[in-house]
């Protein structure tokens, strides 16, 4: 599997307009308009041409835009619009001292705490995999299969999430503490999914397994805990914290029409590497399997803040809130506007979502389709700072 992003859903779908608390279905017709931009290329993968602005393209300079391509979808993603308030936690982070003290007090379940390990467990990791040893009283959740349906990349249903949560011993008043490897990439993704289904009290162990095992040198155990079945009932997905492609497409079109500037009333934050954002590289399909994209670059108007900029390189903990805010402001994020974060398959974007939403208290969505969806879609606008399209369908000379 990936060492970069998480998995979940998409397609070209977006929540229909609804009032708070009403179940919504999704049925959308999205039209991708193309516009000239300065300093990068906007790719139209159906029109046979590109608009260029500041660099050569794979099809030569001075090309004109082809006709806009229409993307049509009619799918049903049950959900509702519950706003942002229920997902904001007063104390979103707990440190390793806090957890060690709770463990010293005895049974976490009796204290109303469920501790979950959500790790990627790569063979190259310096950290001990859960199957060999783990933080005492932690249960394991397999990120690549627990949250999503087979073959669709859509999430499990609310009913299935209820079964999962209850099997982990989670009740309505449980404090769920998540941690993982890779500086909590997948733990943050799990936190976003838990919030998506209405779990109220969700926290991250700041620094994750790296902080506990490597930096602090604390104990691990082989014992797997057994907990009573919980009673939590999941809510439908909260579509106020999840973005679908047509919503992002509307923003991208506004930005592309403004020459690639962030002209829309929503910030787009691309948290991939600078090389991926610029369109200099894609991904190695032999490593990342189904996560590759035929077109390289970024969504027009997005700012690039790689997730590593907001964590301490030694401990893996989040930087102080004021430093995190300053990093995004310097990159061009306007905090008077809501934010949509994306990466390659949604997992690193969840890490950014946690920082911006939970730590800073901003209104943030995750576009979990991310670049694996956008970079394989026909007709959507793509910006490429390298001056030419890249990837499978746009190599120089093709």
TrEMBL record:
A molecular function GO annotation: thiosulfate-cyanide sulfurtransferase activity
Catalytic activity as recorded in UniProt: thiosulfate + hydrogen cyanide = thiocyanate + sulfite + 2 H(+)
Domain of life: Bacteria
Domain Rhodanese: 109-221, 262-383
Keywords: Repeat, Transferase
Regions crossing the membrane: none
SMART domains per record: RHOD
A Pfam family that the UniProt record links to this protein: Rhodanese
Record's protein name: Sulfurtransferase
Source species: Nesterenkonia alkaliphila
């Amino acid at each position: 599997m990936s060492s970069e992003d998480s998995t979940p859903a998409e397609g070209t779908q977006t929540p229909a307009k609804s009032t708070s608390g009403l179940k919504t279905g999704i049925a959308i017709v999205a039209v991708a308009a193309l516009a000239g931009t300065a300093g990068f290329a906007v790719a139209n993968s159906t029109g046979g041409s590109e608009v260029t602005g500041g660099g050569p393209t794979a099809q030569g300079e001075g090309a004109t835009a082809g006709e806009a391509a229409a993307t049509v979808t009619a799918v049903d993603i049950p959900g509702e619009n519950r706003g942002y308030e229920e997902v904001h936690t007063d104390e979103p982070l707990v440190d390793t001292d806090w957890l060690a003290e709770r463990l010293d007090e005895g049974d976490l379940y009796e204290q109303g705490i469920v501790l979950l390990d959500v790790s990627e467990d790569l063979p190259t990791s310096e950290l001990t995999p859960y199957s060999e040893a783990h933080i005492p009283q932690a249960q394991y959740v397999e990120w690549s299969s627990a949250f999503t349906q087979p073959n669709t990349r859509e999430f499990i249903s609310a009913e299935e999430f209820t079964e999962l949560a209850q099997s982990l011993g989670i009740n309505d008043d449980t404090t769920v503490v998540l941690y993982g490897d890779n500086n909590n990439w997948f733990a943050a993704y799990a936190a976003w999914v838990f919030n998506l289904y209405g779990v109220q009290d969700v926290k991250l162990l700041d620094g994750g397994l790296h902080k506990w095992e490597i930096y602090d040198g604390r104990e691990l155990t082989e014992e797997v805990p057994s907990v009573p079945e919980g009673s939590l009932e999941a809510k439908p997905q909260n579509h106020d914290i999840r973005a679908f492609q047509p919503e992002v497409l509307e923003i991208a079109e506004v930005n592309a029409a403004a020459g690639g500037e962030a002209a829309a009333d929503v910030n787009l934050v691309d948290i991939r590497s600078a090389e991926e954002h610029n369109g200099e590289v894609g991904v190695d399909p032999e490593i990342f399997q189904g996560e590759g994209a035929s077109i390289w670059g970024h969504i027009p108007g997005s700012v690039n803040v790689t997730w590593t900029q907001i964590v301490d390189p030694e401990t893996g903990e989040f930087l102080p809130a004021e430093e995190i805010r300053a990093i995004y402001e310097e990159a061009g994020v306007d905090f008077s506007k809501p934010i949509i974060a994306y990466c390659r398959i949604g997992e690193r974007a969840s890490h950014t979502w946690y920082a911006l939403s939970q730590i800073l208290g901003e209104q943030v969505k995750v576009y979990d389709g991310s670049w694996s969806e956008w970079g394989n879609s026909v007709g959507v606008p793509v910006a490429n700072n390298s001056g030419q399209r890249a990837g499978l369908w746009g190599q120089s000379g093709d």
